[in-house]
Specification:
heterodimer, A: alpha+beta, Alpha-Beta Plaits, three-stranded antiparallel sheet, 2 helices, globular, B: alpha/beta, FAD/NAD(P)-binding domain, 3 domains, five-stranded parallel sheet
Chain lengths: 68, 364
């Protein structure tokens, strides 16, 4: 399953939880930016850690929203 | 700006966000952070949760190398004691005079105290890492903690203490926890959750007397009943920590900015935004777009997220199951969504943010 990540920059408060869970995927500056990839479970865990629910995980093939 | 550059007083989130933003926006002048505590700037939310539960996770925002690489000078263990705005100088407790071209006051807030409780060794406050360690050392399984004040800090500590096997009594002057913030309806839900988790709640009351020899052994409530305890946490709110300036007001001083709890921000996201906004203002950049006020809390393993401002709401719609700790409460004012509390369903937050943002003009 190829997953794509979208970050709602208006919602991101740069808490840094995503980077804490998956530093290979996220770097947090003014807002979080995607710098890499990881297996689906890890991406979803990182998205679910966000206190602002600012991270959306999408199945790139079907366009289906996997999280939230 | 000239050679003195930016001085940030305070080693919390607002100060950290200010220095990060200055560097990210290309500011090349001198940046100094004056921090009263002897440790690098750190994040406070874990103090009432993970750190209190014994998880000694790294809570510093950045490691030493980051400050070196970004040429941010940390003056640790340096307490600011006076502001002399005509000389553009912060005077430290050591007597050191720190001159600035631009100043950020980000000294946070000081917990409100109960004067009658101050002389006792087992009465705690919770604001710093040292406070959290001291409180943690008191939380033995089977011991009895009395938490005075059912705001977010008091509730989070009650939750953590229960997980550690501590008996907890929560004493609150209002009729429910968080009544002034969220209203009695949602406040009553918080009371129910804590009660289910074994917390004894004493609402609409206050402590009349603290008794004990050096340590509080017993508290007397207004109705005369007494509670025996091993330790006490006073969590009755905070006030901006500005006394150190020696000034009546700091709002209109030239080249002086105030951010975070020191500016009355009162929660994490406000401090983050205001710290970054202060950096932009120092550099003459347009202010960032205002975001909806929001914060979060974790209690008994349930994530609680809050958006907007419910204090002006006149009505409340609940969707989901409060008894299962899985619901959204949408607050409206004259039919317009103004705030939401999202409990145990973070997936519902983005839609709530759109709904409230649209009616409050913070989003397109």
């Amino acid at each position: 399953m190829a997953l794509r990540i979208e970050i709602d920059e208006a919602a991101c408060a740069a808490h840094g939880d995503c980077e804490h869970v998956a530093p290979e995927v996220f770097r947090v500056d003014d807002v979080a930016v995607v710098i890499g990839s990881a297996p689906p479970d890890r991406l979803i865990e990182a998205a679910a850690a966000c206190p602002s629910t600012a991270i959306t995980v999408i199945d790139d093939e079907t366009g289906e929203q996997v999280y939230p | 700006m000239d050679a003195n550059g930016v001085v940030i007083v305070g080693g919390g989130l607002a100060g950290q966000r200010c220095c990060e933003r200055l560097r990210r926006r290309g500011y090349e002048g001198r940046v100094r952070m004056v921090c009263a505590e002897p440790i690098r700037p750190y994040d406070r939310p874990p103090l009432s949760k993970e750190l209190l539960a014994g998880d000694d996770r790294a809570i510093s925002f950045r490691d030493e190398a980051w400050y070196r690489d970004n040429e941010v000078e940390l003056l640790l263990g340096t307490r600011a004691e006076q502001l002399e705005p005509t000389d553009r100088t912060v005077v430290a407790a050591t007597g050191e005079r720190i001159r600035y071209d631009k100043l950020l006051i980000a000294t946070g807030a000081a917990p409100r105290t109960l004067p009658a409780a101050e002389r006792f060794a087992n009465v705690h406050m919770l604001r710093t890492v040292a406070d959290a360690h001291a409180l943690r050392d008191a939380l033995h399984p089977g011991s009895h903690l009395v938490v005075i004040g059912a705001g977010f800090i008091g509730l989070e500590v009650a939750s953590t203490a229960r997980r550690l096997g501590v008996q907890v009594t929560l004493v609150e002057a209002a009729a429910t926890p968080l009544e002034t913030v969220l209203g009695a309806g949602v406040g009553g839900w918080f009371a129910g959750v804590h009660s289910e988790e074994g917390v004894r709640l004493e609402l609409s009351t206050a402590i009349e007397d603290f008794r004990g020899n050096g340590r509080v052994e017993e508290l007397r409530l207004r109705d005369g009943r007494t509670i025996e305890c091993n330790s006490v946490l006073v969590a009755i709110g905070v006030a901006p920590a500005l006394d150190w300036t020696g000034l009546d007001t700091v709002g209109d001083l030239p080249d002086v900015h105030v951010a975070g709890d020191a500016a009355g921000g009162q929660h994490w996201e406000a401090a983050a935004q205001q710290g970054a906004a202060a950096a932009d203002a120092m550099l003459g950049l347009d202010p960032p777009r205002a975001q909806l006020p929001s914060f979060w809390s974790d209690q008994y393993g349930t994530r609680i997220q809050y958006l907007g401002d419910a204090r002006r709401a006149d009505s409340l719609e609940v969707d989901g199951s409060p008894t299962d700790r899985d619901f959204t409460a949408l607050f409206t004012c004259a039919g317009r969504p103004v705030a939401a509390l999202v409990v145990g369903r973070p997936r519902a937050l983005p839609a709530m943010r759109r709904l409230i943002g649209a009616s409050n003009g913070t989003q397109d």
